[in-house]
Amino acid sequence: MLVSIVTPSFNQAPYLEATIRSVLEQNYPDLEYIVVDGGSSDGSVDILRRYAERLAWWVSEPDKGQTDALNKGFAHARGEILAWLNSDDTYQPGAVAEAVAFLRSRPELGLVYGDANFIDENGRLIGRFSAAQTDYRRLRRGYVHIPQQAAFFRADLWCKVGPLDPSFYFAMDYDLWVRIAALAPIRYTPRTWANFRLHTQGKTIAAADRCWPEMLRVHFRDGGSWAGILPAKYLIRKAVSPLWRFRLRLKMRFGRKGE
Q: What pTM does this model have?
């Protein structure tokens, strides 16, 4: 089964090569890798040129942001299984082969996801993403627990529910998971497949406040009301957001001591 992996990037030169190598060094032979750069000026293009012969397709040109870059990349993808890896994250060795084997053994599944580590800007392990089993009903209630870095989904479902909504800045992955889970089961497996990098320039730190309002848009679009569980979680999260961001910054600074 051909696997297509897309990396959107913009001015992420300090991390981009580690991301690329983590994909190209997977022990899975049937893999195409696509990198969509938004016109970086920090040396990212020089890195891409060094690996150009091993990339299925790459481009560096202005775009409308991460979601636009992902849609552009998936438009060039030919794989039966799709995934995306942001340009500051990395795969664990063997992740792709394990994900493919899982989906081969469970043809009814639309998406599989594993665990992810939190790492700092230097690649040091500082924690674990709280991955857990979810489904369409739980997703609609805001029970996400899917590390996007460790998620793999079937291309035939992408053809039915894609592309990503370009109006989303943060929660485009949540929107996609909801659409996929409405059509096919999704499954968690407790295997560590990826590393989620936390740093001050990353969206998880710099723009986290935009996530839950976008999740609310999905909730109301699909018939939800203010009386639902997800809006209640949004209000709670909004109240504790400063503490949550402070905790993440402690995690980045002190690692496991800050958990």
A: 0.89
